[in-house]
């Protein structure tokens, strides 16, 4: 079974927990995800199944959108609500306008230090393993891009926000750093991912919906339509000759796409045969082949 399934991840599960659950429901091992969510976070978790797991390479740098709550006055060791408090609670002495002014300083390309409880590796060891053992964790700052960041509410100790960020950005670090700059500490109280690349909450399915499917074949009706995948690449519907060449890993001539770097090659409306990369002029070579044989066009 090949496809992309967008899950609305509930709190309390790791991304790998979700993958394992879908594997059990489908009886299929070839399931992966496109971007980890912390256990306490919810929202968009795209899963790739079957041969489409090979599409993951095109989503490594995917843009992501979030909405969430930052709680001010208390920092934690994990930078979120799951961690232990660091120090005493501090009073909130700033206004909504002052908060917005500080938030604006974090837009654009910035240097950000990942949380000590993260998967970033220190000499080959994940930082969170060292942090759990109370060993010193000193991660180097990394360059990230925060494309949009708007604080849209502020009441008491809590501020609501919306954000759109490049891959590699830690929202927990963003909350922590804003609290540090305001002098009162802060942590990320809740987080919901609203999109990953082209995948949004509108097409997300709950795990309960997946569990409720009584026939394995009906799962395919919950998949994202393959024509919606990788919208930055143009699509071509292959004839028999082009489809056969793609499946055997041979180059194909696509004169109408001379300006494109990659092309999605379909047979019929739904069968994605593969992704072809332009070699020169109008000649394209299969970068990945997703269908070893072609079914009747649909």
In short:
Helix content is 18%, strand content 35%. The model has no long low-confidence stretch (mean pLDDT 91).
Helix content: 10-25%
Q: CA-to-CA gap between the ends? A: 16 Å
Could you say which structural class the secondary elements and strand pairing correspond to? Answer: alpha+beta
> What composes the largest sheet?
9 strands, mixed
- How many domain modules? 3
Strand proportion: 25-35%
Number of helices: 6
Instruction: Give the C-alpha Rg.
Output: 22 Å
Please give the number of β-strands: 18
| Element-by-element helix/strand order | EHEEEEEHEEEHEEHEEHEHEEEE
List unreliable stretches of 5+ residues.
Answer: none
Outline, from the CA principal axes? Answer: elongated
CATH homology group of the largest domain:
Pseudouridine synthase
Examine the coordinates and then state which fold CATH places here, giving the name of the CATH topology of the largest domain.
Pseudouridine synthase
What does this structure look like?
With 298 residues, this protein is an alpha+beta fold. Helices cover 18% and strands 35% of the residues. It has helices spanning 15-26, 96-104, 127-132, 171-182, 207-212, 240-247; strands at 3-9, 31-33, 42-49, 64-72, 75-76, 85-86, 108-112, 121-122, 125-126, 142-155, 158-165, 186-196, 199-200, 235-237, 252-253, 262-267, 271-280, 283-289. Strand 16 and strand 17 (271-280) form a beta hairpin.
Name some characteristics of this structure.
single chain; 298 residues; alpha+beta; Pseudouridine synthase; Nuclear Transport Factor 2, Chain: A; 3 domains; 9-stranded mixed sheet
């Amino acid at each position: 079974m090949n496809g992309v399934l967008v899950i609305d991840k509930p709190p309390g599960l790791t991304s790998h927990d979700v993958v394992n659950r879908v594997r059990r429901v489908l009886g299929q091992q070839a399931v992966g995800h496109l971007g980890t969510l912390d256990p306490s976070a919810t929202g968009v978790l795209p899963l790739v199944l079957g041969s489409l797991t090979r599409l993951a390479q095109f989503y490594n740098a995917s843009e992501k959108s979030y909405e969430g709550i930052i709680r001010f006055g208390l920092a934690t060791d994990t930078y979120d609500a799951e961690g232990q408090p660091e120090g005493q609670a501090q009073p909130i002495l700033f206004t909504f306008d002052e908060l917005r002014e500080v938030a604006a300083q974090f837009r654009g390309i910035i240097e950000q230090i990942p949380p000590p409880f993260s998967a970033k590796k220190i000499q080959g060891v994940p930082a969170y393993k060292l942090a759990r053992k109370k060993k010193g964790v000193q991660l180097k700052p990394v360059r990230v891009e925060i494309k949009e960041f708007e604080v849209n509410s502020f009441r008491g100790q809590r501020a609501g926000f919306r954000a759109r960020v490049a891959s590699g950005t830690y929202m927990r670090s963003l909350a922590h750093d804003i609290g540090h700059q305001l002098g009162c500490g802060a942590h990320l109280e809740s987080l919901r991912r609203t999109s990953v690349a082209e995948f949004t909450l509108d097409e997300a399915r709950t795990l309960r919906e997946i569990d409720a499917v009584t026939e394995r074949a009906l799962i395919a009706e919950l998949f994202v339509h393959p024509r919606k995948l990788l919208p930055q690449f143009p699509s071509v519907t292959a004839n028999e000759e082009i489809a056969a060449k793609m499946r055997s890993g041979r180059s194909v001539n696509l004169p109408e796409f001379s300006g494109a770097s990659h092309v999605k090659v379909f047979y019929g409306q739904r069968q994605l045969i593969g992704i072809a990369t332009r070699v020169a002029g109008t000649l394209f070579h299969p970068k990945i082949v997703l269908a070893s044989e072609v079914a009747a066009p649909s």
